[in-house]
Amino acid sequence: MTDNAVRPSAISVFCKEPYRLFFPLGFIYALIGSSHWIWFHLGWTEHYGAAFHGFFQIQGFGTAFAVGFLMTALPRFLETPFARVWELGTALLLSITSTASAVLDYSRTADALFLALFLFVVLFAVRRFHQRKCPPPPEFVYVLSGFIHAIAGAAMILYPPDGLYKLGERMVQQGILLSFIMTFGSYLGVRLLGLHNTRVQTIEIHAGEDNRFSKLKLKVMGFALIALGLFVSFWIEAAGHPVPGRVMRALAVTLQLGVIAGLVRLPRRHFPAVYLLWLSFLFTMAGLWISAVFPAWEPTMNHFTLIGGFGLMILIISMRVTLAHGGFEEYWLKTSAGIVLIGIGTLMALALRICAQFWIEHYIPILAASAICWNIALIAWALCIVPKMAPRYIEE
After folding, report:
1. Quick one: DSSP state of residue 396?
2. In the structure, what pLDDT confidence band is assigned to residue 396 with cuts at 50, 70 and 90?
3. Among residues 67, 77, 180, which one has the least CA distance to residue 122?
């Protein structure tokens, strides 16, 4: 951590590392989205807000963490200038006004502002790609895939195409985060789990320039085909062929995460946070397959991917980012009460959400109990991590 005499200003730290603002914002969105079921069970609201819950969990919580991560990571990978004050402010304003519109029940405005947010993040990424001093890893093909799913999906929510049932909603609810997870899992996930093959890396470094360039092109082409399969899977599902579409989606994600990245293997680093991250990759893939195999229960079984996959992964990844950037590396290796509560809370929330499907007479109370467990995981994460996002904690 930097000395007081040379400590940078808070705004310069936020511009350099936007996650410090977006991650706490995502935490607030997640609390609002899940607490709806508690309010409904207690009679504090008469509105049955499944769409409200979904918006805050994906377009609020998931998106805030994704935008914060991308605006922090892209300039580093591409070796370009960090976010400017106006860029950071614009992204925050679009995120906050989008979710505020959802609270006020202006759903169309909320979706339009969500589309504007991703268009702005794409502009942020394109500007830095043109200024790059270092090429991005080939796995960043999936970042482009995430942008395509976000923009196309949001546009089709606003202007639904005839004969394609919930195409836009599915692209936004699953396509965005699945694409970003395929990026993260393939590049950083294997390293955090200790599964990266350093021998292969050494061989590639000593290979000829032409040979390395050919391998890079083949990788990019292969990843692009998998991304195309993911994209097409939503169209097949929406066109009235749900099982083939979901199978295709599960195959695309499993091929990338399970086969190419090898994330089905046991981690070689034996820390609680690492095992939770590994479980989140397994839940992401398993949830897609279960939803395909049991199509009648798909809305419920999707939560294997949404809670056990997306939710748990976001909390663990954001923890890793915060600890690494704040100079708290030793905390990643510990078995803290916080990490235990994150794991137990998330897994209990998932188990209860699945149980609600089979105890319909107690459906809302079980949803409320699931929300309480998820909120416990969120609050444990916030108590452990949010204080470490203060600008005074910065690793140079």
Report:
1. -
2. low
3. 67
Angstrom distances, CA of residue 276 to CA of 224, 319, 342: 29, 12, 9
Structure tokens at 201: 């890396």
390 vs 36: CA distance, rounded Å: 29
Q: How many CA atoms lie within 13 A of 23 on its CB side?
A: 31
CB-based contact 53:103 (threshold 8 Å):
no
Q: How many CB atoms lie within 10 A of CB 4?
A: 7
Given a contact cutoff of 8 angstroms between Cβ atoms, the answer to whether 287 and 38 are in contact is: no
Tokens 């692009």 correspond to 224
Per the CB < 8 A criterion, the answer to whether 168 and 112 are in contact is no
- Residue ranges in the chain assigned as alpha helix (H): 10-16, 19-42, 50-54, 63-78, 85-103, 107-130, 141-158, 167-170, 176-184, 190-192, 198-206, 209-238, 242-253, 272-293, 298-301, 303, 312-326, 337-356, 363-385
Radius of gyration of the chain (CA): 20
What's the Cα-to-Cα distance from 7 to each of 72, 83, 85, 346, 373, rounded to whole Å? 19, 19, 18, 37, 39
Domain ranges of the chain: 271-396
Specify the DSSP class assigned to residue 168: H
Backbone angles phi, psi at 48, to 5 degrees: -85, 95
Distance (Å) of CA 190 to CA 10, 129, 266, 373: 33, 25, 11, 29
* Tens of pLDDT, residues 314-331: 999 999 999 999 889 888
Distances, alpha carbon 158 to alpha carbons 49, 59, 108, in Å:
19, 14, 7
CA distance 245 to 65: 27
Q: What is the pTM of this model?
A: 0.91
Q: For residues 152 and 114, give the distance between their C-alpha atoms in angstroms, rounded to a whole number.
A: 12
Q: Are 98 and 114 in contact (CB under 8 A)?
A: yes
3-class state of residue 268 by DSSP? coil
CB 24 within 8 Å of CB 95: no
For residues 318, 323, 324 and 329, what is the CA-based torsion angle, rounded to 10 degrees?
-140
Q: What is the pLDDT of residues 173-209, one digit of tens each?
A: 999 999 999 999 999 999 999 987 643 343 344 445 5
